[in-house]
Design brief:
Elements: H1 2-18, E1 32-42, E2 52-62, E3 67-79, E4 86-99, E5 106-121, E6 126-141, E7 146-157, E8 162-175, E9 192-196, H2 202-209, E10 215-219, E11 223-224, H3 234-248, E12 254-260, H4 267-287, E13 296-302, H5 319-324, E14 326-333
Parallel strand pairs: 9-10, 12-13
Antiparallel strand pairs: 1-2, 1-8, 2-3, 3-4, 4-5, 5-6, 6-7, 7-8, 10-14, 11-14, 12-14
Amino acid sequence: MKSSKTILSVCLIACLTLIVQTAAAEIRPGAVSVSPSVGGYVFDPDQCLENNVVYGLGFGYHFNEHWATELGFNYIRTESDRDGCNEDVYLYHMDMLYHFMPYERVVPFIAAGVGGIIFDREKGHSDHDPAVNYGAGLKIFLTENVALRGDVRHVISFSETQNNLLYTIGFTFLFGGEKARVVDAPKTVEKKVVIKASEPRVEEKLAAVAIEPNVIILAFEDIHFDFDKSTLTPAAQTILKRNIQLLKNNPNAKVRIAGYTSASGTEAYNQALSERRADAVKKYLINEGLITQSRLSKIGYGETNPARYEAAPKELYSEAAKANMRVLFEIIVE
């Protein structure tokens, strides 16, 4: 039994070095498996045979995520307690396996099967008896295709109804098969109603859509700046004052202020200018007493999310560049 302990220790050390490579289980339909193993075999006391190391090899096929079949072979070199003669013991069995939680990293399973057991004595004749087995096991996946495996089986031979115990540890290697399809969870589509603040009869439209649980977005007009400026123009102040009444009529609204720049200049400079423009609108609203600071937030986008694409950024006064010199802000009523 010393050799058995040595082999099991080596196997456990190898497992510990691989266990850090965690992976999800992949019990795949159509996959073929090869499972070498080593362990111990306990004979019925009536058989008068020494318990010893058992070596095993299994070849399996997975019908689906849960069910698999496996052809297994085991070999034990033992010694008779009666006369001290050596005996070679061979087991062969065809098993059915059922896997629980096939998509988890740790996959328990149960197994049962039929086969036979052969006793090949050094002196004397050989015996060949039918046998059945049942038991359970565990697979711990180290990678997508490699799992640490442990089995415990009760083996019953029918010559004189002898009860044996088989326990092993080893690896299972998977080849081929169909990988499980990942189905994305259905996305929740948020229903939004966008109303431009410049439209006529805005208040009536808002009251009509507010009856249903919609996300209502009141989109205000763009406030344009001259090139490289963050101060509000008189025209921009007029636009703010004309639309600010919509803010006051919706005290639960939150306002998002987004500052934009043209694509000319460096990214860092445009980002800073974008934020200064957003600040200009925010300070104006607060200083004029049009809205409280708690209802305002700002985001500086720089060159991202432009209103129009600028084919030639060096043309500072192109129509596209002028369209991107703005602060865009929205009211979101939830």
